[in-house]
């Protein structure tokens, strides 16, 4: 049960179906992606956000018809609340980021609501170790599984691209929101350009969002607008081709609620050296000094220094890029993520059965 408008939801559902499991996707959001034939889609009669409360009865009826072995609710607040109201067990509650980092900071009520959702679950799923630790600050659940959102290493592949006519391409693929530090990236790019002259440098930014106008104005104010290309919104299918244009990938998120680094891992699988901030998720998926550089958030000077270091050394970029891909192949492939999620399902079912047999709460 998750937001059907998310590409991540569709990937989980399709991936599990391709592994031979019977998958039902239940959502209070409109489906926007393409589901495999092995996935049955069920749209709740009341959409989000009101559906998180009002659709509980409909969900209970639906679950009685489906009779699933397990319910996996994605996002610990909205869908976590709906799952709790359904009273279905066994329940694996998968946390995504802002639901654990930002939501409980709004008020005591929000923290208590999240704690109730976490406590009701048979087990928790977290895409990262750092988010698992943060969740424990709200409710120290005894059963939590790390289920990273891996990337398809067969789609994100290294290329033999070198700098075109001495032009190095720095880039990122992120929503143009304050959270993701695109302004810091533009400032770092301007600083790096000063150090690397007369070496040509270009910045490419893929994504859309509310800060697009102000970010373009910032590029003008810093005198780098002619060297910055805004691609606008991009479908996920186009991301491999965009990464192929880059020499260095940069992600300077400023909030810890960026609790996992999918875009970073996609660049890593494509063999790109990366520069990331020390926000929780980016720092966890990057080995500082080996697969890339981890720099302090909101620090364009440190980011520029890392970019310059990589720009001046093709050997360093190649070495880090190779280490980056190997890191993904070892820890973050899509097949490994599916295996970890399925193991979390099996363990959650066992936890529920043990709790039922002993008369304990799940």
UniProtKB/TrEMBL annotation:
Domain Glycosyltransferase subfamily 4-like N-terminal: 4-128
Segments forming domain Glycosyl transferase family: 169-326
Pfam families per UniProt: Glyco_trans_4_2, Glycos_transf_1
UniProt keyword Amino-acid biosynthesis present: no
Superkingdom per UniProt: Bacteria
Keywords in alphabetical order: Glycosyltransferase, Transferase
PANTHER family attached to this UniProt entry: D-INOSITOL 3-PHOSPHATE GLYCOSYLTRANSFERASE (PTHR12526:SF510), GLYCOSYLTRANSFERASE (PTHR12526)
Name of the protein in its database record: O-antigen biosynthesis protein WlbH
Native species: Variovorax defluvii
Lineage: Bacteria, Pseudomonadati, Pseudomonadota, Betaproteobacteria, Burkholderiales
